[in-house]
Amino acid sequence: MQITDKQKEEQLIPILRQAFRPLFLLGAGFSAIAMLLWGLALGGKVDLPVYGNIMFWHSHEMMFGFVIAIVLGFLLTAVQNWTGLRAPHGNTLLILTVLWAAARLGLLFGSELPWWLVAAVDISLLPVAAFLFGRMVLKVNQTRNLFFVPILLLLTVCNLLMHYGLHFGQYHIQILGAYNAVFLVTLLMAIIGGRVLPMFTANGTMTPKVQPIVWLDRIALGSLWLIFAVHFLNLHTILPSQVMVFLFTVSAIATAIRVARWKIWMTWRVPLLWSLHLAYWFIPVGLALFALRYAGFELTQSLAMHALTAGAMGNMILSMIARVSLGHSGRPLQPKLIMTGAFLLVLIAALTRVFLMWLAPELTSQWLMFSTLAWALAYGIYVVVYFKVLTTPRADGNPG
To answer: How far is the C-alpha of 115 from the C-alpha of 98, rounded, in Å?
Structure first.
C-alpha cells in the first residue's frame, strides 16, 4: 500500500520521515551516555546537577527516558503498517522528539529548576504520543491495537507517581511508580514478543511458524496483567507471601513454556533471532526471582527488577531496534558483524548485573562498573553503526 507521497517525502529530512529514526537514535545514544554518567556518579567521579537525586535520576531515566523513547519509536512506526494511514512525521514528529529531549535535559540539569516545570514537560510526552497513536487506530476502527493507548496512559500515571513521590518525600509512592512501569513494559514486551517472535523465527530459520496455544497465552499474559494490577493497587503489601509466590511462579512457568515453544535452539546462526529469544527468556527468569524472593530467599527486589530491565528490556530493545531499523529503511535483515558483539555485550551486562552481583555481592562495585561499561559500549556500537541508516533515505528508493 502506497501511504506516502514520494515528492512530498523527499522534501523532509530523512530523520523526520518515521518515528523510529529520531527516537531510536536518540534513545540508544542517551542510554549509553546516561549509563556512563551513572557509573561515573557511583564512582564519585562526577557530581551531576540532576533533578531530585542521582538514584531517582537513574531509575527514572532508564525507564521514562530510554525505554519509552524506543517504545514510542516502535509504536508510532508500526501503527502506519497496522492502519494504512500516514504515521506522525515532519513537524509533528519534530515536536514530539523535542519534547522528549527537553524532558531529558530538564532531569539531567534540573536541580535548580522548578520541580513542577520539569515534571510537567516530562509527564506530557506519553499523553501526546497516546493521542497521536489512538486517533490513527480509531480512524480505521482497529480495536485490536487500541489497548496500547491505556497502556501508555497507565505509564503516564506511573511517571506521575514517581514525580509526586519525589517532591513530597513519599519514597514508597516513588518506588510504586517505578516498579509498576517495569511490570507494565514487561507486559508490553510479552505481548509484542508473542506477536513477532514466532514469525521472525519461522522466516529466519525457514521453518513452519509455531502456532499459539490460546489457553497458554491467556495464562501467561493474564498473570502479567494480574501482577501489574496487584502492585499498582499496592495489594502486594497486604497479601500473604504465599499468594505472591504462587502468582509469580505461575507467570514464570507459563511464560517459560511459551518462549520454549519458539525453539531457541534453531536460531543460533542468526544473531537477530537468538538475541531476541535470550531477551525474552529474561522475563520468566525475572518472574522466578520474584517468586524466590517472596518465598524467603536472600535476594533483593532490585536484583529481580534488573532481570526484567537490564536483562529483558536491555537485550530485547537492542535486538529489536537493530532489526526494525534495517527493515523500515529498506535494507536486508543482515546486520553488520560488529552488532553480534553488541548483542553479546548487552547480554554480558545483564548477566553481570543480575547473577554475578547475586553470587558475589562483595564485588558489587566492580560488577556495577563492568556492567555499566558493557551496556554503554553495546548501545554506543548501535549508534555508530546505524547513524547513517537512520539519517539517510531508504536504501530501496521508496518513501518513508
So the answer is: 19
Residues 327-338: b if buried by 16+ CB within 10 A, e if exposed: ebbeeeeebeee
Residue-wise burial string across 40-55, b where 16 or more C-beta atoms lie within 10 A, e elsewhere: ebbeeeeeeebbbeee
Q: What is the pLDDT of residues 257-301, one digit of tens each?
A: 999 999 999 999 999 999 999 999 999 999 999 999 999 998 999
What's the Rg (C-alpha) of the chain? 20
> Per residue in 170-215, pLDDT tens?
999 999 999 999 999 999 999 999 999 999 999 999 999 999 999 9
3 state SS for 82-146: HHCCCCCCHHHHHHHHHHHHHHHHHHHHCCCCCHHHHHHHHHHHHHHHHHHHHHHHHHCCCHHHC
User: C-alpha grid cell for residue 65?
Assistant: 527516558
Q: How many residues does the chain have?
A: 400
Q: Measure the CA–CA gap between 48 and 40, rounded to whole angstroms.
A: 10
